[in-house]
Predict the structure of Acetolactate synthase, small subunit.
Amino acid sequence: MMQHQLAIHARFRPEILERILRVTRHRGFQICSMNMDQTMDGDNVNIELIVASQKPVNLLSSQLAKLVDVAGVKILQQKSQLIRA
């Protein structure tokens, strides 16, 4: 299974995390790690996700980029990792 690291820049809205989690789940990705920091101005957030799936990560990043309050999505790294069930 491949792990992918994504950096998401978005406007800070109470529902933004729920939307990101829903899209991630619907696209068949498992969240391994998530970190969110609010920017100094308080209007934006930077979210770092590490997700795992056999699917190409660009399927997820393109859908996340379409969300209303998401300003940008970057794929930072990907690595192959054996995940035991």
About this structure: The chain has one domain: 1-77. The chain has a mean pLDDT of 91. DSSP finds two helices and four strands in the chain. Strands lie at 2-11, 30-38, 44-53, 70-80.
